[in-house]
Amino acid sequence: MRATSIITNLRVADVEAAKGFYTGYLGLSTEDFNMGWVARYVSPDTGTTVQLVTHDATSPEDSVISVHTDDIEGAYEEAQQLGYEIVYPITTESWGVRRFFLRAPDGTVINIVNHRD
Predict the structure, then answer these.
(1) C-alpha–C-alpha distance, residues 2 and 33, integer Å
(2) How many CB atoms lie within 10 A of CB 10?
(3) Cα dihedral: 115, 38, 66, 109 (round 10)
(4) 41-53 confidence digits (pLDDT tens)
(5) pLDDT in tens, 52-79
(6) Domain region containing 7
(7) Residue 11 in contact with residue 50, Cβ under 8 Å?
(8) Distance CA 22, CA 35 (A)
(9) What is the domain count for the chain?
(10) The domain that contains 99 carries what CATH number?
(11) DSSP letters along the chain, please?
């Protein structure tokens, strides 16, 4: 497994209500995307990123981080070989990402994802 980036997923009750703090006060002024239930905000100066999530649209559990990888199939196979609990099986989502969720040994749920360009 090779992580190409890791993004924090912050649970919020309402993305639009929380947006002002993260874009205004913290300066994450670029809205990378917004699907209503998840939105990503980025600092144009530093590239610092956060995702605000109300609930995951398809997984039975929410993740606390999203780990991007360029080899999603290999990451899935390795997770299975290592015996990690797969919370959500590898899936190509309607919004164009391929991902799966696993539970780390400490109980943390992690979204392993590949954005197809």
Answers:
(1) 24
(2) 13
(3) -130
(4) 999 999 899 999 9
(5) 999 999 999 999 999 999 999 999 999 9
(6) 3-115
(7) no
(8) 17
(9) 1
(10) 3.10.180.10
(11) --EEEEEEEEE-S-HHHHHHIIIIIS---EEEEE-SSEEEEE-TTT--EEEEESS-SSSSS--SEEEEES-HHHHHHHHHHTT-EEEEEEEE-TTSEEEEEEE-TTS-EEEEEEE--
At 31, which amino acid appears? Answer: E
Residue-wise DSSP of 78-90: HHHHTT-EEEEEE
How is residue 23 written in tokens? Answer: 């874009």
Q: How far is CA 61 from CA 4, 19, 22, 23, 38, in A?
A: 23, 23, 24, 26, 14
The CA–CA distances, whole Å, from 36 to 12, 28, 54 equal 12, 17, 8
